[in-house]
Design brief:
The chain has helices at residues 32-38, 58-90, 95-121, 148-170, 177-207, 218-239, 252-273, and strands at residues 6-9, 17-21, 27-31, 40-44, 52-55, 125-127, 132-134. It contains seven helices and seven strands, in the order βββαββααββαααα. The protein folds into two domains: 6-55, no CATH class; 58-273. With 278 residues, it is α+β, with helices and mostly antiparallel strands. The strands form two sheets. A five-stranded antiparallel beta sheet has the order 1-2-3-4-5. A two-stranded antiparallel sheet has the order 6-7. Helix 3 packs antiparallel against helix 4 and helix 5 (177-207) runs antiparallel to helix 6.
């Protein structure tokens, strides 16, 4: 079959939905998140009144299931550990104990971020002629900033690495106020900003343009809950700034409770993500 025409949709320079006409008169519709997460393509044969979903090949489906389970589990556990670390910090069980809990939770976030990127790198690609999704060779890395799913997951992964600097520095003792702000607070702010940018791209991806409400779409709920978590993390980071003049934190309670609530959002998002699979 030969392709006759092709229509792309999406925000700005990105394509999140692609529709093309097949040689037999039917149509196929590829959607970025649906193909990456569920391995599905929508196909309507000539003469059919209702479209149907066409699943990717078995290799792609197996990959997507494994990667999805790993990412979902990593974010669920990492979010739970971050919430525990915030609770320990809030209720005075020891700064060092809370810092170590945060650090271990950060390792899970690193894992979830990288696996999410792997899922974008190894997502099945559309076969225009056959109206199907086909597996590509396995890759541990790619550079595809023109794809919104790659850019979103890349920023997420980099954000988790920057958080790692913050968490490692938190284990150090005897830091001056300036060092605390430079080594702990600044990376925290950068990581939160990257998380917000990643979440915004994920939101416009699932909405195919301007962010809106898609209450019937599980993917939208996952992105929305995670974005709420990113906003709470940013609020907590702002409140955790140490004033150079006094050496005191702006608001410890907001910092701890904001982190706890944001972490729970990511944990819930991880649980929900487990069900967004082929």
């Amino acid at each position: 079959m030969s392709r006759i025409e092709r229509t792309a949709e999406g925000p700005g320079p990105f394509t999140t939905r692609l529709t093309w006409r097949l040689g037999d008169g039917g149509t196929a519709v590829w959607e970025s998140r649906r193909a990456r997460k569920r391995g599905l393509l929508t196909v309507r044969a000539a003469g059919d009144s209702e479209p149907r979903s066409r699943r990717a090949d078995s290799t792609s489906v197996s990959r997507l299931r494994r990667l999805n389970a790993m990412a979902a589990g990593a974010f669920a556990v990492g979010g739970g550990l971050f919430a525990s670390g915030a609770a320990v910090a809030q209720f005075g069980a020891g700064d060092v104990t809370g810092a170590w809990i945060y650090f271990v939770g950060g390792l899970f976030f690193n894992t979830g971020g990288y696996v999410s990127l792997l899922q974008a790198v190894n997502a099945p690609r559309q076969d225009d002629e056959m109206g199907a999704l086909a597996a590509q060779r396995w890759r541990w890395w790619s550079y595809e900033p023109g794809r919104i799913d790659w850019l979103s997951t890349f920023l997420l992964f980099v954000g988790t690495l920057v958080f790692g600097i913050n968490l490692l520095s938190s284990l150090l003792q005897g830091l001056s106020v300036q060092q605390v702000d430079r080594l702990i607070w600044a990376p925290d702010m950068i990581g939160c900003t990257l998380f917000l940018l990643s979440g915004h791209l994920a939101l416009v991806e699932v909405c195919h343009g301007r962010p809106g409400i898609r209450a019937r779409d599980l993917g939208w709920w996952i992105v929305a809950v995670n974005q709420l978590g990113s906003v709470l993390f940013l609020g907590a980071a702002l409140a955790d700034f140490t004033r150079p003049a006094t050496g005191s934190v702006v608001n410890v309670d907001i910092a701890n409770w904001g982190t706890l609530a944001g972490a729970l959002c990511f944990s819930v998002g991880g649980v929900l993500q487990y069900f967004e699979r082929p």
